[in-house]
Fold:
Amino acid sequence: MNDDCLFCRIAQRRLPAEIVAEDDDVLAFKDVNPQAPTHLLVIPKSHIARLSDLTPETARVVGQTVLMANRLAQQSGIAEPGYRLVMNCGPQAGQSVWHLHLHLLGGRPMKWPPG
Amino acid sequence: MNDDCLFCRIAQRRLPAEIVAEDDDVLAFKDVNPQAPTHLLVIPKSHIARLSDLTPETARVVGQTVLMANRLAQQSGIAEPGYRLVMNCGPQAGQSVWHLHLHLLGGRPMKWPPG
Structure:
């Protein structure tokens, strides 16, 4: 945990968020600036600042965030029509919070290119 | 392997592709319709049709594709400026090949929303 990190503070319940799901390792909550009818963030509870900081030892958490996103897509009714998962790494990608997070977007047709 | 699957055929070298990296489990090649200066696809070699088909037993491969994408971002010189990873599931997300694949995009500022 990193006391200066917005998402660590959400995971610790020290900042409010609309949390929609949680297990021992990952947490999901609504994006405060949604870009689609369903727009959730899924994060590892442990502090990993950037996607590029993942190691063979920690990369397992990516699969866990994707499995959580899949469950939430199912619950939201967007699994069959479809959904997009996005991870940004670094400033040119638009990463704005330095804690690894997976965007789950759906509920509308998604365009191409993806930004 | 699925004989009718485009990406299985690429993995088997039965269809041409500009392959840029490979290990025992995953394969990376250039997208034939690139949407950014760097636009690569990273796929598991095993046939998984949809993201939503992942199970706790097979989800590990997502971490492997992300680690491969991280290495390729480093090699392409886009790791520091930044890169975006995208996975589409289903028609509304624009999934067009029914074999799980991770898009790695970078080399230009990426816009928001992501499509």
In short: DSSP finds two helices and five strands in chain A. The mean pLDDT of chain A is 97. The CA atoms of residues 77 and 107 of chain A lie 8 Å apart.
